[in-house]
Design brief:
The protein is mainly alpha-helical. It is elongated.
Length: 171
């Protein structure tokens, strides 16, 4: 029984070594493509979330203020702030995630060029969220996230192809 265990243990160890050698020899995948796919997914996810969340939030603000139409202006502002504050927090988070994404080498120059725009938009969304929470709901109408459409449209062609949510009309 002990000899059988030793033989089985040796066979398992040999199989592990063979698998490791194969993975190292074959490279385990295309790192360049994995990096491009991961970076494109960060953009695609953020653009889709920003678009969808903006539409949902606008509807929620309309619903919450319409339901409270007979209430005081302060109550209406508070209802809008309850919806808009978290929306702006999510917006800032999406922008932060894209700015922090690690591009593959061929998209590094593009990313370095748009990251300041993303970070500035994130800062404006965060500042507006703070104003809204203090009752300044009018700050929503003045929110300017900068030229995010320009950032998306100036993306390399391969990245634009992989991120339809970023290049669709109105996003």
């Amino acid at each position: 029984m002990t000899r059988r265990r030793a033989l089985l243990g040796g066979a398992v160890a040999a199989a592990v070594v063979v698998v490791l050698v194969l993975v190292l020899a074959l490279g385990g995948g295309d790192d360049r493509e994995d990096g491009a796919a991961t970076y494109a997914a960060a953009w695609q996810d953020a653009c889709a979330a920003l678009r969808d969340d903006a539409a949902r939030t606008a509807g929620a603000i309309r619903s919450s203020t319409a339901a409270d139409a007979d209430r005081s202006p302060e109550a209406l502002r508070a209802a809008a702030a309850r919806v808009a504050g978290p929306y702006l927090d999510r917006t800032a988070g999406h922008l932060r995630d894209v700015a922090a994404a690690r591009p593959p080498q061929e998209w590094r120059r593009y990313h370095d060029a748009v990251a300041p725009t993303l970070r500035a938009a994130q800062a404006r969304a965060t500042a507006t969220a703070a104003r809204v929470r203090r009752g300044d709901v009018a700050a929503l109408s003045a929110l300017d996230l900068g030229d995010l459409t320009g950032a998306a449209s100036s993306a390399p062609a391969d990245l634009r192809r992989r991120t339809p949510a970023c290049t669709a009309a109105g996003t």
